Amino acid sequence: MQPVARRTSPVDTLRLIAQDIKLAHSVFAMPFAVLAAFMVAPRDALGRIDWAAMAGLLALVLVCMVAARTWAMVVNRLADRRIDASNPRTQGRVFASGALPPITGWLTLAACAVLFVASCALFGAFFGNWWPAILAAPVLAWIAFYSFTKRFTWWCHVFLGGALAASPLATAIAVGGIETLAEPGLWLLAAMVLLWVAGFDAIYALQDLDFDRQAGLRSIPARFGWRRANALSRLMHGGAAGCLIALLLLWPTFGLIFGVGVLVAIGLLAYEHVLLARRGAAGIPMAFFTINGMVSVLLGVTGVVDVLL
Prior knowledge:
The protein is an all-alpha fold. It is built from 13 helices and no strands.
C-alpha cells in the first residue's frame, strides 16, 4: 500500500525534489557537455573562439542539461516508486515514502519538458540551428527509457551510460551543428562516457544485489554475482580508458594538459577498483560518487583548458 503524501509548500516541494534527485550528481554529465561545446565552439576568421556567440550557446546548454537531467531523474523516481518503497535502501525517496504525491512528479515532468523543448527552440531562434528543437522529444524519450530497462535486461547499466553519453553528442549538435557528428573524436568521448558510467553503475548496483534478485529485477550484479560484476566493471573502465587515450591522440587541440588529466583519471579509475577490492560494500559510496565526480571534473576542466590554450 502506498503511503499518503503530506501537504507541502512550493518551496519545500522544490527542496524535496532537488534533494531526492541529487542535483550534485549532475557532475557526472555536465563537464562532458561543456567539454564537447568547446571542442566544436564557433570561431572567427583568425581561429579564435567567438565569445559573443559562445556565451549564449553555453547558457542554453546548461539550461537544457539541468532540465533534461531533472526530467530523467523524476521519471526514474515515479517509475520505481513501488519498487523503491519495498527496498530498505530507497524507501525514503520522496514518491516512495509519500512525502510527495505522484501528481507533483507529473507536473514537474511537464515543466521540465516545456523548459527543455523551449530552450532547444532558442538555438534555432537565435543561432539558426533547428536540430536541437527537432531532436528534443527523441532525446527526452531516450534518457527516460533507462528507468524501465532493469525490468527486462541486465544491460540496464549500458542504457544508463547511453543516456549520459548523449550529452556530449547533443551538445555538439546544438553548438556546432549536425555536421559535427562526422568527427570521430566526439564519438570517442561519447563512448568513453557510456563505458565509464555503465562501469560505475554496475558497482552502485552491488548494493541491491540481494533485493534485485528477490524482486526479479535485472542487473549485472543480480545476473553474475559480486565478483563477476566487479570484473565486468573493470573491463568497461578499461574500455573507457582506451577511448580517452584515443581521443587524446586524435583531437588536434588536446595536448599536455588534457594528457595529464587523462593519466590521472585512469589512475583514479584504477584506485576505484582497488578501493572496492579492499573495502567491499563499505567502499561503494566513495567509489561511486567521490572518485567518479573527480574523474568527470578533471577531464572536463583539463580538456577545456587545453582547447583554450
